[in-house]
Amino acid sequence: MSFIDVIKEKAKQNIKTVVLPESTDIRVIEAARKVTDEGFAKVILIGDKGEMEANANGINISDLTIINPNEFDRFEEYANALYELRKEKGMTIEKAHETLKNNIYFGTMMVKMGEADGLVAGSICSTADTLRPSLQIIKTAPGVKLVSSFFIVNVPNCELGEEGMFLFSDCGLNVAPNEEELSEIALSSAKSWTSLTGKEARVAMLSYSTLGSAPLVENMNGKVINATKLVKEKNPDLQVEGEIQLDAAIIPEVGSKKAPGSKVAGKANVLIFPDINAGNIGYKLVERLAKAEAYGPVTQGIAKPVNDLSRGCKAEDIVGVVAITALQASTEQ
Known about the structure:
CATH architecture of the largest domain: 3-Layer(aba) Sandwich
Distance between the termini: 26 Å
Structural class: alpha/beta
Number of helices: 14
Strand order of the largest sheet: 8-7-9-6-5-10
CATH topology of the largest domain: Rossmann fold
Helix content: 40-55%
Largest sheet: 6 strands, mixed
CATH class of the largest domain: Alpha Beta
Strand content: 15-25%
Order of helices and strands: HEHEHEHHHEHEHEHEHEHHEHEEH
Number of domains: 2
C-alpha cells in the first residue's frame, strides 16, 4: 500500500470536510469527483454550478456539494464575522461583502465558521493568495511562532529514510529563515511527520558540512549549527543532528564515518533545508530524477489545515493533498 493510500485509510476513520474553492479548474472538479467516490473525505466546491457543469468535461457533479456565495443564506453572517475579525485592520462591512466574493476568502471563512475542517487551493492562485486569507482569518495554532511548509516525498524502490519516504522542509514558504525560524521549522516538521506517519522523527539539519568538517561560515553552516542547538534546547527528546551533509544524513555507511555514534546520521527521515533555494531544488530533483511521488507543499502551524497546490499539479495530486488535509484536521483535534 502506498503512502497516500495509507493516509486515505486513516482519513476514512474520521471523515472531515475540505473546501475546494477553485471550482472552475477541471483538475479540481475531477479531484472532487475522485475524493467523493473514494469516500475518505467530504468536499465542498465553491462557485456557480452552471459554470462548473460547463467546465466539467462530462464529469458527473450532480451529487457534489456546491455552494455559491451569491446564493448562500448565511452570507450576511459571514460578512459580519469577517468585519469583526478584521475591523482593527481597516475592514468595513462593505469591504467584507466585497472580500467574500473571492472564493478563497469565502472558503477560508467556511473553515473559520466551522462549516468545513480544511481548505486546499493553489491550482490557479499563487501561494500568497492561497495562504494570506488563512493567516488573516484562521491565524496560527496556539504555541506556534512560524507557519512553514513541507513535502512528503516517497521514493520508489528505496530503503533509505522510512523505506523511501521522507519529509522535506521548508521547500515553498520561508525564503531565508534565520536560526530561530529554522529551529521552529524543524520542530513543526517533526510533529507533522509523526502525526501523518505514526513514525518517530529523525531530523537532519542539512548543510554543506558535517559537524564542523568545513570552515565555519556564520550565515551558512553557522546558522544551521545554532538552529540545531535551539532545537535540542526546545525539545531535548527529539532525535536531531546537525549540521550534517545530505549523504551523511541518509546513507548509513557515510553517516557512520562522518558522524559516528549519531542516532540520526544515515537514518534521517525528516530533512530540514537551510533555505528555500536548497529545499525547492532538492525536492524537485528527487521527484524528477528518482520518479518520486511528492505531496505538497503542505502547510504547518495554521490553526486549521489550509494547503497550497503547485499550479502544475495533476488531479491526482489534488486528491492526495485533500487526503493529507483531512488527516491533519483529524489529528489536530
